[in-house]
Specification:
Helix 1 packs across helix 2 and helix 5 packs parallel to helix 7. 43% of the residues lie in helices and 19% in strands. The protein folds into 2 domains: 64 residues, Arc Repressor Mutant, subunit A (Orthogonal Bundle); 123 residues, no CATH class. The protein is built from 8 helices and 9 strands. By secondary structure, it is an alpha+beta fold. The longest helix has 13 residues. The strands form 3 sheets. Strands 6-7-9-8 form a 4-stranded mixed sheet. A 3-stranded antiparallel sheet has the order 1-3-2, with helices on one face.
Length: 198
Amino acid sequence: MIESVENKILTKIKKAKRGTVFFIDDFVSFGNAKAINKSLERLVLAEELKRVAMGMYVRPINDKFFGIIMPSIDEIALAIARRDKARVMPTGSYAMYKLGLTTQVPLNIVYYTDASARKIKIGKQTITFKKASAKNLSAIGELSKLAILALKSIGKDNVSEEEINKIKEILKKEKPYHLQHDLKLAPEWIRRLIETNE
């Protein structure tokens, strides 16, 4: 008996750990587009999968205390980057949020990318991928790249003493080599701010 497209998809998603993001492209070898879409629809109805966005699905984590846990915006953005073999980097107010400079989660989350620019709606939020130069994506430190992008977003004349001190405190946790590498890529005013009284 030939295994149905639905069973093939179910077998594949059950082999992956919960919380993994899947794309329609992950199942192309199982059948034609119509059969795959129908099978995914049925698996969503059977609550085996949740639809994250158009053409994007997840087998969510089921926590006994918190219930169903969907992937974070970061996990979704990184899954898209892996699929597209692209680099992505959170910028603007989302970089500020990730650093703890603001508690407000932005509704429009912007990532720099070296892949094509696009917008993806995730519930009430929108992920915007903005095409950026290689220089903007060359930072290697997890914290230093966020700090540089957050400062760029705040602006030279708007950054407060409190924000500068908070960023300096955060950057103490960055690997020195990563920080030095990333500061060479940063605008001069940011370099001066961070390097003063380090």
